[in-house]
Amino acid sequence: MPPLFDKILQYLPLPRVLSPLPDFMLAISVGLLPTLYALWSDPSLLFHFKRLQQVFQSNFWGFFGPEVDKGGAPVKIVLLPYAEGVVLEIGAGHGHSLKYMKRDKITKYYALEPNTDMWPELRKALVDAGFSEEKGEAVILPYGAGDVSKIVEQLGGENQVDTLISVLVLCSVPDAKDVLPELCQRLLKKGGSLLMYEHCLSPVPSSRLYQRLWTPIWSIVFDGCRLDKDTMTWVNQIKWSDKHVWRKEGEPEWSLFFHGVGRFTL
């Protein structure tokens, strides 16, 4: 985007306020009918709202996911080849991250994905990336990021992970401010790395206001995703021995989907 145009948009509130609307409406248009069908087939979903959110998420993610992956590809091409050793990915979804990793650098891959409706596509991505569940090269764990003790138990103890991957998932993690340091300190080996690409709170005060205005309704439709999480501040508060932080190229600071990228070494 030309710098002058970017500067003008920074001071025009309406385009920024409405910028999440196309994605919001598209998600509803794609996910609503399949979710209503699922509800018709199993009315008990009405009494399990979190599960209903997961059904909706899985229905629209088949359409949405590849486009989101494409938009983040320039970042992931640079970031994810650093994955090595024992790798654990938080919220692996359909496994879009796998194709950016170097298979020969990874000894074992753990996919943390609590939404079991995502698993069929995730398993296809594992096979395409050269991982075998049968041989123990990959393991899918049905846990959320906050289930740290259960994750540790499955890993066989604390500090077993060489690389922790977080790609557009911490926005949906409850209590992420507390969960993130616990994950890093209990899962990562000394010298292990966190590879992170997340949308975060904008540096522009007015945009932060709009993010907070959108978040209540956005989080309902997008399975708990919050636009107003100050993730970069939280991750920078962890004691790292080394870190490299950068931004998504060409993205304006006023964006309501402002992203932070980083490679952090414990």
From TrEMBL:
Name of the molecule in the record: Methyltransferase type 11 domain-containing protein
Pfam families according to UniProt: Methyltransf_11
InterPro entries: Methyltransf_11, SAM-dependent_MTases_sf, Thiol_S-MT
Domain Methyltransferase type: 88-195
GO molecular function: S-adenosylmethionine-dependent methyltransferase activity
